[in-house]
Fold:
Amino acid sequence: MGRLRFFLKVAFICNICFLLAEASYYIDYKGHFSELLKYILLMGIVVSFPLNLLVLFVAAIMLYRRKIAWAALPPYVFIVNAIILIVQFYFLF
Structure:
C-alpha cells in the first residue's frame, strides 16, 4: 500500500510536468530555461502517460477488489491524476 501511495505521488509530479510541457508549446521562452525544459519534456511526454495509466489501473483494481480502502490512498491525488489522464488522452491521441 505504501508503494502505491508513492507511485501515485510520482505520477502526480509527472502529470504536472506534462501540463508544463503542453503549456511550453504555447509560451515563447526565448531560449530561457532550455536545460530545465529538456527534463520537463522528458518527464511530461515520455514518462507521464504510461506511468499514470499503469498506476491508476492498479489502484482501481485494488479498490475494486477491496484490497485497500479509499481512505488509505490520497483521494485528491487519485482524482486529479484521473482528470489529467483524460486530458492526456485528448492531447496525445
The helical segments are 2-24, 34-64, 75-92. DSSP finds three helices and no strands in the chain. The mean pLDDT is 92. The CA atoms of residues 18 and 80 lie 13 Å apart.
